[in-house]
Amino acid sequence: MTNVGILHPGAMGIFVASSAQNSDNAVYWASENRSPQTRGRADKYNLRDAKTLADLCATCAVIVSVCPPDAAEELARQVVVQSFKGLYIDANAISTQRAARIGQAMQANGARFVDGGIIGGPDWNSTNTQFFLSGKDAQEAATLFASGPIQPCVIGDSIGKASALKMCYSAYTKGTTALLCAILATAHGLGVRDELNALWSADALNVQAEQRAKRVTGRAWRFAGEMEEIASTFRQAGLPGEFHQAAAEVY
Q1: Which residues of 138-168 are buried (b: 16+ CB within 10 A; e: fewer)?
Q2: What is the pLDDT along the chain (251 residues), one digit of tens a residue?
Q3: For residue 29, what is the enclosing H or E element?
């Protein structure tokens, strides 16, 4: 049994935590400064409360970071400050550059690092959600979640490879949804929504576009940071990042 710490048990974090529990690991979290909703999720799934980040880092051999992308680097810095020397798994939707920086910071302070990217939502009724992992210790990380429902998949020993895959996948899925939202808003604003729907109806694009827009409405704010990370990744690869920068504005 390995002591695994989760930062933090939101909707996806608790899904990752449960997969670690199913694989016979003891899963901890730190309740300090967390919301009542987060406390409720942690209690519901019987996570062990280490109270503070300092105690979490002292108790756990592995820490998994699941947070909004714009908070990932600062959260990693806070862990480094605690002199954590175990295995740190970053499971956030971050650029390849940010993954590399976090990995370097961890390794410079004596911790090991695995780059991770989750593709799919917290689907409790299937094994469709995949957890891609890369880095020299990726296989060790994969064993922590072997019993699912999240499906670990090792794709190499290079830091940044898992993040690159996540960025490219989301660039299409969430990026095209942002484009559809912008098209619908423009058509509505210019009074040609009905005519556009008629043109799209042959391919059922009118129904698909509206459904995709509605699915993201309640959590669109969460995708803005991810679009900015994608834009940064594209620029590093020598491609323009402006499309996904605009997608961040739409979200």
Answers
A1: bebbbebbeeebbbbbbbbeebbbbbbbbbe
A2: 899 999 999 999 999 999 999 999 999 999 998 999 999 999 999 999 999 999 999 999 999 999 999 999 999 999 999 999 999 999 999 999 999 999 999 999 999 999 999 999 998 888 899 999 999 999 999 999 999 999 999 999 999 999 999 999 999 999 999 999 999 999 999 999 999 999 999 889 999 999 999 999 888 988 999 999 999 999 999 999 999 999 999 99
A3: strand 26-29
Q: DSSP 3-state helix, strand, coil percentages of the chain (rounded to 5)?
A: 55, 15, 30
The values of phi and psi at residue 127, to 5°, are -115, 35
CA distances in angstroms from 109 to 4, 82, 86, 247, listed in the order given: 19, 10, 10, 36
Q: Where in the chain is the domain with CATH 1.10.1040?
A: 164-250
Residues forming CATH 3.40.50.720 domain(s) in the chain? 3-158
Fold of 3-158: Rossmann fold (3.40.50)
Q: Note whether 8 and 35 are within 8 A (CB).
A: no
Q: Which string of DSSP letters, residue by residue, matches 194-231? A: HHHHHHHGGGTHHHHHHHHHHHHHTTTHHHHHHHHHHH
- In CATH, which of 1.20.1070, 3.40.1310, 1.10.1040, 2.40.160 is domain 164-250? 1.10.1040
